[in-house]
Design a protein that fits this description.
single chain; alpha+beta; 28 helices; about 950 residues; six-stranded mixed β-barrel; 25 strands; elongated; about 55% helix
């Protein structure tokens, strides 16, 4: 039996090889899913931890415990530290991650103190911090063996005006009253590297602590009559060891820690909760993006397997007539499909691994790079997916055999069955599905704002929103098949009497087989339309993201200078403050060195109050600029179709340059306060937050000299997230003033340095800690969501080209083989070869060219209808630049070129087959049949 099956496969080796290709691609795409899911999940985890560190300015994976212990139970510092180490050991027994660092601080409440050089009634806490000397730099030092030595931070020094060598007289309770203990400031310290994981709490965070050695701390415990000793313990873990496999397990353990110990805390669970939400989104996106491609491959496999089964109908009838049961015939084909599925499984796993790695390496549509994709590795779930896909393929190929393995029936009966109108056409399934797709599109468009907020809140997306375009393409393809049939009947009725014999025979064939040939038309339409939509969706997403980033940054690169704030407290309780401006000359030298074409200061403040008439606005966004330098440095990214503003933005800079006290304001601010050009307003600024959170220190009147909709670096819409994770949209109001005026009226405050790089220069030629548009674009391209989308759309587009070309060529070649007898008869009746070719060309026009054109039209229509909606997933924020649809001519030419080559090759092959056809052999074939 097995040898018989192998011979059957060999007899039609080319068809079976094409079937194997389809099965291998289906399994490969199937096994891509778990590898892509795990790899993207690990990438998201790494990104979330990194973002947390940047945004919260703390190590992203730390477990902590803060509280007090009774001195009676823990009489010295070492016993407390041992207890804290015991907690750390217990935590890492369950959360099996390497320890990066640990910070343990124990403190006594201290008391009121006077200082040697006049400071009175200060409050200090006595603390012991193991490892302090290892992680700090000593700014100043002075020893004094006569008293207890202590160390203080630079912040404490600045706050109280202390110096090295100064004595602190601390009044502490000793059980019988107050006792004075003298400390000498032996060291003033600052962190060696404030970014070191050890600094879970920085010296500034620890407050007014005087740090002593362990021996001194133990001695201090003897002086105090307090019952408790305070502690804080921070354990920093290697977050790189948290991955998709153990994230859920570790999250569960940490939940148990919190339930069992109310003093326990960590910053890992919040990150993991965001990860679990995004992981669900990734899973849904992957299936939604893979499903259309899987359906396309199923259509391809169905087309090939149907051709094989059609050619083997007579073999099945012979087996049945010689006594084989339906079950035996089914088992025979089950073995045949099993061999193909097994081979496809082996090839599919290897091919799936390669495809996933290739898709992960993209940073744009059809753009493969050599970037690091180490998170995308082989996972054992790929084997399970491969077996499941192979079983699906075996059943899909074999089940139709059961229907075919009936008792012999007449050819006429078979023809009669084949002429039945399909169920979908009888029930108008195409119209129903098209109406359903339009209804879904209408509803989703009405809910755009809600959908955008849900994306920003990291809630799961609705996969139907992504699949609706595929539903539309499928329904439109069925409708085109219906319309093509009607066009064939109409043309035949109108010109039937004028047709030549060859054309008459051609239309007769089209009418007889139009239901059977509809499958090819649906396949071609879905392939072409899907390829066009995938290309346009990817291009639109990438282009809009890049344009928004360029607009938001406003120039090539930005450096946020480090300003030192000096605060002085006066005896009357008032506070004086001043910022020390760094040397700006080092940036101006970049122009002389040919690294930058433009450099400018941009002072920014997002805590500005604006009033005009009876109206007022809080938390407006102030930009103070030098108009000439700013014009040479900044860039305003325009919309696709037109500029954002009514005139070029340089005109507004010119108006501002004419008015020293003038301002440019945003159109939403003008609308909110009822302002127009020439009106006056007043704007006020607050003192630095380090001095006071809510105190205005200066105001200025200004004249409105221009109103703009967009300005470099100005984002009109912002989004705030509350403690429950709910996101609210808010508008930002812009006011742009002259830099010299603002500094004169408000004093020097921190500014950022904007740079316009010279051609061929990059940020690597300047400083490391720069914010540049290109860096942000690269980071965005490497985000998991964008990477998955680019990768899947690229794979889908390439697979569409391959499957369409092979399927189209194979279908027509096999159709010609099946009609070999018919063409032989036509030639025997006197029909010339030129007429046979004309007949086939006519059939190709209706069965191939029209579907290809329809596919192109449907793809462009789907782009216009669905791309902006689906873009909400990637661009949920409102922006000064709206979402514009991008259709790249190169993509369309690539698709058209491949299809043209496929059609041309098909026609050449058909012509050669017709030339090689022998009339006598064809007629003899008819006699044998």
């Amino acid at each position: 039996m097995f040898g018989f099956v192998i011979n059957k496969l060999k007899n039609r080796k080319w068809l079976n090889l094409c079937l194997l290709m389809g099965v291998a691609l289906f399994i490969a795409l199937f096994v891509c899913h778990p590898m892509f899911e795990k790899g993207a999940g690990n990438q998201i985890l790494d990104r979330l931890f990194t973002d947390h560190a940047t945004q919260q300015n703390e190590f992203p994976a730390q477990m902590s415990r803060e509280g007090t212990y009774a001195v009676a139970d823990y009489p010295d510092s070492q016993s407390v530290l041992d207890k804290l180490s015991g907690y750390e050991k217990k935590w890492t027994e369950y959360v099996d991650i390497n320890k990066v660092s640990s910070q343990q601080l124990i403190t006594l409440s201290g008391g009121r103190a006077d200082t040697e050089f006049g400071g009175l009634n200060h409050y200090f806490t006595i603390g012991y911090l193991p490892g302090l000397s290892e992680y700090v730099d000593v700014v100043k030092s002075q020893t004094d063996t006569a008293t207890f030595e202590c160390s203080i931070s630079e912040k404490t020094m600045d706050h109280y005006g202390l110096v090295a060598g100064e004595k602190i007289y601390l009044h502490v309770p000793d059980g019988s009253g107050k006792k004075e203990i003298s400390f000498v400031i032996s060291q003033i310290c600052s962190e060696k590297d404030i970014n070191n994981p050890y600094w879970a709490k920085t010296l500034s965070d620890m407050g007014d602590v005087i740090f002593v050695s362990q021996d001194v701390f133990d001695e201090m415990m003897q002086y105090y009559s307090e019952d408790n000793i305070s502690y804080s313990d921070f354990l920093m873990l290697d977050y790189r060891q948290i991955n998709t496999e153990n994230a859920s397990l570790y999250d569960g353990y940490m939940e148990q820690f919190k339930d069992a110990d109310k003093l326990y805390n960590d910053n890992i669970r919040d990150t993991l909760e965001r990860f679990f939400t995004q992981q669900k989104t990734i899973k849904l996106m992957l299936w939604a993006l893979e499903l259309p491609c899987l359906v396309l491959l199923i259509l391809f496999i169905r087309m090939i397997s149907a051709q094989i089964l059609s050619l083997e109908e007579n073999d099945i009838l012979v087996l049945r007539s010689r006594g084989a049961t339906k079950l035996q015939v089914f088992i025979l084909y089950l073995q045949q499909s099993g061999i193909i599925a097994f081979a496809g499984c082996v090839l599919g796993i290897v091919l799936g691994y390669i495809m996933c790695r290739a898709a992960a390496s993209t940073d744009g549509f059809l753009r493969f790079t050599a970037k690091d994709i180490g998170t995308y590795r082989f996972v054992w779930q790929m084997l399970v997916y491969a077996v499941a896909a192979a079983v699906i393929m075996v059943l899909f190929i074999t089940v139709p055999v059961w229907k075919k393995s009936k008792d012999a029936i007449s050819e006429r009966s078979r023809e009669r069955i084949s002429k039945k109108k399909p169920l979908w056409e009888k029930c108008f399934i195409d119209v129903i599905l098209l109406a359903l797709s339009a209804y879904l599109l209408y509803n989703y468009n009405k809910q755009k704002s809600t959908l955008a907020i849900s994306v920003l809140e990291n809630r799961s997306i609705d996969p139907v929103m992504i699949l609706d375009n595929s539903l539309f393409i499928f329904a439109a393809a069925l409708l085109c098949v219906r319309l093509t049939g009607l066009i064939i009947l109409l043309v035949d009725r109108l010109f039937k009497k004028r047709f030549s014999p060859a054309m008459y025979a051609s239309f007769l064939q089209l009418k007889r087989t139009r239901y059977n040939q509809g499958f090819l038309a649906v396949f071609l339409i879905m392939t072409v339309a899907g390829g066009i939509f995938d290309a346009n969706m990817a291009r639109t997403m990438n282009s809009n993201m890049e344009k928004r980033i360029v607009y938001n940054v406003g120039c090539d690169a930005i450096y946020n200078e480090d300003f030192r704030l000096r605060i002085q407290k006066n005896k009357d309780g008032s506070v004086n403050w001043m910022y020390d401006e760094p040397d700006f000359g080092k940036y101006e030298s970049l122009k002389n060195e040919g690294i930058c074409d433009g450099v400018t200061r941009v002072l920014e403040d997002e805590r500005v109050d604006i009033s005009a008439g009876s109206g007022s606005i809080s938390d407006a966004y102030l930009m103070a600029i030098n108009t000439k330098e700013f014009g040479e440095t900044a860039k305003l990214q325009s919309d696709q179709n037109d500029d954002i503003n009514d005139a070029h933005w340089f005109n507004y800079l010119n108006e501002l340059a004419k008015e020293p006290d003038g301002v440019i304001i945003s159109s939403n601010l003008a609308k909110a306060l009822g302002l127009k050009v020439g009106d006056s307003l007043n704007y006020s600024r607050y003192v630095p937050e380090a001095v006071d959170d809510d105190q205005i220190y200066a105001s200025e009147n200004a004249k409105v000299c221009a109103i703009v909709k967009g300005f470099p670096g100005y984002e009109r819409y912002t989004y705030e997230t509350d403690v429950e994770g709910n996101v609210t949209e808010q508008e930002k109001y812009l006011i742009v003033a002259n830099y010299a005026t603002v500094v004169e009226k408000f004093g020097m405050t921190p500014y950022s340095v904007w740079m316009n790089l010279s051609k061929g220069k990059t940020v690597d030629d300047i400083y490391k800690n720069l914010t540049s548009a290109q860096q942000l674009i690269d980071e965005n391209k490497n985000s998991a969501t964008v990477q998955i989308t680019n990768g899947m759309f690229t794979l889908s587009f390439i697979l569409s080209l391959i499957v369409c070309s092979v399927g189209f060529l194979l279908y027509w070649v096999m159709t010609l083989k099946q009609r070999e007898l018919q063409f032989g008869i036509y030639r025997a009746m006197g029909m010339r070869m030129r007429e046979v070719k004309a007949m086939l060309l006519n059939e190709q026009i209706f069965l191939s060219f029209l579907p290809l054109l329809a596919g192109a039209g449907i793809g462009i229509t789907a782009t216009a209808m669905f791309v902006r909606l689906i873009s909400i997933i990637y661009l949920p924020q409102k922006h000064n630049i709206g979402v514009n649809v991008y259709i790249y001519q190169s993509d369309m030419l690539e698709l058209a070129g491949v299809l043209f080559v496929a059609v041309a090759v098909c026609y050449v092959v058909i012509s050669r087959l017709l030339k090689s056809m022998k009339i006598a052999q064809a007629l003899r074939l008819g006699e044998d049949s």
